[in-house]
Design a protein that fits this description.
42% strand; outer membrane lipoprotein receptor (LolB), chain A; three-stranded antiparallel β-sheet; 2 helices; disordered N terminus; mainly beta
Length: 262
C-alpha cells in the first residue's frame, strides 16, 4: 500500500519514466475495529474528494528505502497534479532523479521523461483505468487512491483497525489526525476540518520490509474549482522524442521504471 504519483528519468539506461500512485493490498477489507470518529472523517473526505469534478494540488513527497546494509535513504520529489474526472489528468514531477510528466487525455496515458526525451503510451479510458495500467507495469504505487473515483475507499483499502488520534495544525489549518493499521502497512492521514475535508498529509509505513521504510506525502494549495484549458491534457511529443515499448520496461529496487538498452 503506497500513495501519490511520482515520476523518474534515466538512471543507468537511456530512458526512465516512472509513476507511483496508494494501492490497497490484494483482497484487503476494512475491519470493525475502526472507531466511528476515524471512519466518519475518512468517509467524509472520500465522499467530498471523490465528488469533485476537477481539482488541482501541489505535492511534496519523501520516499524512503532501506539498503541491504540497513541504511535508510530518502528520495525527495515534488510537483503538481490537475484532475478532470473521469478521464483527464496532468501531473509533473521534479527531483534529484530528474523531471517527468504524465498525461491522460481520455483514451491514453502517456508517461514522458523530459530529460531522457522518451515516452511510454498505455491505453486508458479513465483515471481508474490509468491507475490499473501503471500497476500492471509492476509498480507498488503510493497515492493512486487519492485520484481514484472512490478515494481511500475503506471497503478495499488495507485496514484492520483505526483511530482518531486528535486535532492538530498543518500550515495554520486545523486538521484531524487519523491512524490506521493494516496487514501489510500502517498509515496515518491528516484531513482538514469543515465542509471541505481534504487530505493534507499522509504517511505510510511498510511493515513487510526490513527497517519499515516510510512514504510521506504533503498536499497543499488545493484548488477545487480550477479553470482548465483542455489542451493541458494533450501530449505532443517534442522533437526527437522516442516512443518506448512497454515490453522493454523493468522496475528496479527503488521503483524506477527503467528502459532496457536495445
Amino acid at each position: 500500500m503506497k500513495l501519490w504519483p511520482y515520476f523518474t528519468k534515466a538512471v543507468a539506461a537511456p530512458a526512465v519514466v516512472g509513476m507511483c500512485v496508494l494501492a490497497p493490498a490484494p483482497g484487503a477489507r476494512a475491519a470493525d475495529a475502526v472507531d466511528p470518529d476515524a471512519q466518519g472523517v475518512l468517509a467524509a473526505m472520500s465522499s467530498y474528494l471523490g465528488g469533485l469534478g476537477s481539482f488541482s494540488v501541489e505535492y511534496a513527497a519523501v520516499d524512503e528505502i532501506v539498503t541491504p546494509e540497513g541504511e535508510k535513504l530518502q528520495f525527495i520529489h515534488s510537483g503538481e497534479i490537475t484532475v478532470q474526472r473521469p478521464d483527464r489528468m496532468r501531473a509533473t514531477r521534479r527531483g534529484a532523479a530528474g523531471a517527468a510528466e504524465v498525461f491522460l487525455d481520455g483514451g491514453a496515458l502517456t508517461l514522458f521523461g523530459t530529460e531522457a526525451n522518451g515516452y511510454l503510451r498505455l491505453p486508458a479510458s479513465g483515471i481508474d483505468a490509468a491507475i490499473d495500467a501503471v500497476r500492471r507495469l509492476g509498480f507498488d504505487a503510493p497515492g493512486a487512491d487519492l485520484l481514484a473515483s472512490k478515494p481511500l475507499d475503506s471497503s478495499t483499502t488495507d485496514v484492520t483497525s483505526g483511530a482518531h488520534i486528535g486535532m492538530t495544525f498543518i500550515d495554520e489549518a486545523q486538521v484531524h489526525q487519523l491512524a490506521f493499521r493494516g496487514a501489510e502497512v500502517d498509515w496515518q492521514l491528516w484531513v482538514t476540518t469543515g465542509d471541505r475535508p481534504l487530505p493534507v498529509r499522509l504517511v505510510i509505513t511498510t511493515k513487510t520490509v526490513s527497517g519499515a521504510p516510510q512514504y510521506t506525502l504533503q498536499l497543499r494549495n488545493w484548488n477545487v474549482a480550477p479553470q482548465i484549458d483542455a489542451a493541458r491534457f494533450a501530449f505532443t511529443p517534442p522533437q526527437g522524442a522516442r516512443p518506448l515499448d512497454p515490453n522493454s520496461v523493468s522496475v528496479n529496487a527503488v521503483g524506477d521504471m527503467t528502459i532496457k538498452r536495445e
